[in-house]
Write a structure and sequence with these properties.
Distance between the termini: 81 Å
Largest sheet: 6 strands, antiparallel
Strand content: 15-25%
Strand order of the largest sheet: 13-12-11-16-15-14
Number of helices: 24
Number of strands: 23
Radius of gyration: 58 Å
């Protein structure tokens, strides 16, 4: 079978060979690196061992000299040599005996006898050594005896002092001091002791100058880089190790730091282990590893190439079969001798042929689902473009539910809207929408179901209007509205807390909760489900609905902002007009009042009555001015905790004072019942003005009516089912007709000649700003009841209000 250059077999063999080569080279490199590092480490260990032996050899060398001094001095003392009064002769005899023992060791040695005051009383040896006070000064004698020796630097050369007591019969102490040069002779002794190789060197250094050793150095300065040696001078390190090139030869150098009895730096001994043999060994090892690697590469590439050829040739037939399948030819019979993955691949191709038809069927189903999704996207797009926020939110909700239940839209079976009541703090069922297809076949559906479930379709609207759901985190409807997000479950609704047992009986299936809200207020929630349908809510559906939810929220917010803007502009205009008009009128009133005060004391009775009447009218005008200014003002205080018991007590007390000033405190019965003494959420100052204004309106109503006795009742209670406070202001006054009830909230609408018509609108604005609800119930000739609902003060409510603001 012919194999193309771009076939998988060729590429597999090629890349396999590349992998083998790279792997072999990597292994060879790592092996070589580890081997070389081990060789370097062994060489370093050898250098460290040699310099340690050098230190021991120095100690042994000086110990031998000390032992010889003891032995010779005792022998001479016994022979009477040290009885001679001439110390020079005694020292010469001592040195002569030492030279007979070992001429090479003691030839350059300097000997001296020192008395207890440090004076040299006798000496023998090299004059250069004997003339040096450094070698024989008295300081350190006692330590030299204890430690056996100590080092000194004399004229750039290293000497070691060996000190023993002088054996005399005198009471004064005297000492024998031997100045032992640590010269080339000493280094050769040490070299043989530590067994250095032929290419290894030994040397001594004082300061930065080479003194002696195996190197032929003409200029002794800086034959090695001595930066680290200078560090040894300052630090307390005894040894130093480093690679150096000396006279174009590579060495591993180990240096011993020498110090005197005061731990001052004296010099260095060093061992230089040659790296020449190491380089030769590295070269041999590298060549050997390279040969082995090349042999392995050749063997592995040849062997694996044959194996891959045998294993991958059946892929050619599989490739041809796959190409025929791609062209629509499914009449294929595969007879392969392959194994492992190739055999599995052949079996998989056979199974694939059997599943092609099934996949085509699934593809048609997916196309159908795609069409439904496109319809959903189109529906959402039309809603996003065309939906308009009506004054009544329910009208907008009906349009949304109609799109949700359309078969050309989202295709839900049922939709139910629950409006949020701020007064009762509950979600109240308001309207429903049923899919037109479900409505058409509802009789067939009901036949398949047990009797008793007709209300789930036929009486759905009537049942929903009976449902009231507490607004709390416990049920999922309230949770969706509070969290301002969609909640959905592809499950039966009775398994979840819906807030009402009657609601669970509606048979929710695969349902979602769609909240409706704006920036400041909750409007309600829409519940949609796939009742009687075998459909599930997908994540794609939720993403589309979230887009719609965001758009509706923005539009509701925009509408509220537009209404607020119109109201602000209207109040601003009223404020400007009122300020200009009232300032002019106030100036005229002040002048008129001044004239009245000046003429008030005249005796003309007619003028006095006229003045009193004018004073009364001026006071009313001032009151109207103040009310108009308050209404046109846009100032709002931050809502806070207000104690309702104290507030209502102050309101009733101030109202009673008003009755006294009007002379009507005996004509009206004021009663109050306050069962809640906690706090509410609001503006204390503005609430107080609003309640007083409402009481004054009640006062006007009872004074205009004919019911006796005239009564005004104030009742404060807590709603047992919600965190709300109910405040009722009841009077048995003249009452209002339905037409009048519709206009009382409009500004400048009044039924009294001397009032601006702003009292009730001002009070309603205050209640609204405090997130409350105010309603009026009235019957002509019977009286009026004003129902006010305020929120109980709680920290979480406060945080929620502040976040909305």
């Amino acid at each position: 079978m012919r194999i193309n250059r771009d076939s998988l077999l060729v590429k597999t063999i090629f890349y396999n060979n590349i992998a083998i080569i790279i792997t072999a080279i990597t292994v060879a490199f790592m092996t070589t690196f580890i081997t070389f590092e081990d060789m370097e480490a062994r060489l370093a260990a050898t250098a460290k061992e040699k310099v340690s032996l050098l230190d021991k050899a120095k100690t042994n060398y000086l110990s031998k000299i000390r032992e010889d001094l003891y032995e010779v001095s005792r022998k001479d003392a016994m022979n009477g040599a040290f009885g001679i009064k001439n110390y020079d002769i005694a020292v010469q005899l001592l040195k002569s005996e030492l030279l007979r023992r070992d001429f090479q060791t003691y030839y350059r040695i300097g000997l001296a006898i020192i008395d207890d005051s440090g004076k040299i009383v006798g000496k023998a040896g090299d004059e250069d050594v004997l003339d040096s006070r450094e070698c024989f000064k008295f300081s350190g004698i006692s330590r030299g005896i204890e430690e056996g020796n100590y080092l000194v630097d004399i004229k750039g050369k290293i000497f070691s002092k060996v000190i023993i007591p002088y054996p005399n019969n005198k009471p004064e102490k005297e000492y024998i001091v031997a100045a032992v040069p640590l010269d080339l002779n000493f280094l050769q002794y040490v070299k043989s002791f530590i067994e250095l190789g032929n290419n290894d060197k030994i040397f001594s250094v004082v300061g930065n100058e080479y003194v002696n050793g195996d190197f032929s150095i003409e200029d002794g300065n800086n034959f090695i880089s001595f930066e680290s040696l200078n560090t040894l001078k300052k630090d307390q390190n005894k040894y130093f190790y480093r690679k150096f090139d000396i006279q174009r030869e590579a060495y591993y150098v180990a240096i011993l730091s020498l110090r005197d009895y005061k731990n001052d730096y004296v010099g260095n001994f060093g061992v230089a282990v040659s790296r020449k043999e190491l380089f030769r060994t590295k070269l041999i090892v590298g060549i050997f590893i390279s040969v082995i690697v090349l042999m392995l590469i050749g063997i592995c590439t040849t062997t694996f190439g044959r194996w891959f050829r045998k294993l991958l040739l059946p892929l050619k037939e599989l490739t041809e079969a796959a190409e025929r399948i791609s062209l629509g030819d499914y009449d294929i019979h595969l007879k392969l001798e392959g194994s492992g993955e190739i055999k599995t691949l052949a079996v998989s191709i056979k199974k694939m042929l059997g599943k092609l038809e099934e996949n085509q069927r699934k593809l048609r189903q997916q196309n159908k689902q795609l069409k439904e999704n496109l319809n959903k996207i189109t529906t959402i797009e039309q809603l996003l473009i065309g939906i308009q926020i009506e004054d009544d939110v329910t009208a907008t909700v009906r349009k949304i539910m109609s799109a949700f239940t359309s078969e050309m839209g989202l295709g839900f079976s049922r939709c139910m809207f629950f409006r949020y009541s701020r007064e009762r703090d509950v979600l109240m069922g308001e309207c429903t929408q049923i899919n037109s297809h479900i409505a058409e076949i509802k009789n067939d559906i009901l036949k398949e179901r047990k009797s008793g479930f007709d209300f789930q379709i036929k009486e759905l609207k009537d049942v929903v209007t009976l449902i009231k759901i507490p607004f709390s985190e416990d049920n999922i409807l309230s949770r969706a509205l509070k969290n301002r997000d969609i909640i959905y479950y592809n499950d039966k609704g009775y398994k979840y807390d819906l807030g009402n047992d009657l609601f669970k009986s509606l048979g929710l299936k695969n349902f979602l909760v769609f909240p409706i809200f704006n920036v400041d207020y909750y409007s309600g929630v829409i519940i949609c489900d796939y009742f009687t349908k075998n459909k599930e809510i997908t994540e794609e559906d939720i993403e589309l609905l979230r887009l719609l939810l965001m758009n509706i929220s923005v539009k509701l917010k925009s509408k509220i902002n537009e209404e607020d803007r119109i109201e602000v502009e209207r109040n601003t205009t009223i404020s400007k007009i009122s300020e200009r008009f009232l300032n002019t009128r106030q100036a005229a009133l002040d002048k008129l009042l001044d004239i009245l005060e000046k003429t008030k004391n005249q005796e003309n009775e007619n003028i006095s009555e006229t003045i009193q009447e004018l004073e009364s009218q001026i006071r009313k005008l001032r009151k109207s001015n103040k009310t108009l200014i308050e209404y046109s003002s846009q100032n709002k205080n931050k809502l806070e905790r207000v104690n309702i018991e104290h507030l209502m007590a102050e309101v009733i007390e101030e109202f009673k004072e008003f009755l006294v000033t009007e002379g009507r405190d005996k004509d009206i019965i004021i009663s109050s019942f306050i069962s809640y003494t906690g706090d509410v959420f609001g503006d204390n100052k503005r609430l107080k003005k609003a309640f007083i204004e409402l009481l004054k309106n009640a006062y006007d109503a009872v004074m205009s009516g004919k019911n006796l006795p005239r009564k005004i009742n104030v009742i404060v209670i807590r709603d047992k089912h919600a965190n709300k406070i109910k405040i009722d202001i009841k009077d048995n006054g003249v009452g209002m007709s339905e037409e009048r009830l519709k206009t009382i909230q409009e500004p400048f609408v009044t039924y009294k000649d001397d009032a601006p018509g702003l009292g009730i609108p001002l009070a309603m604005r205050v209640i609204k700003d405090c997130r409350g609800v105010i309603k009026f119930n009235s019957q002509e000739s019977e009286g009026t009841t004003i129902k006010i609902t305020l929120n109980m003060f709680k920290e979480n409510i406060k945080d929620e209000e502040e976040s909305e603001e």
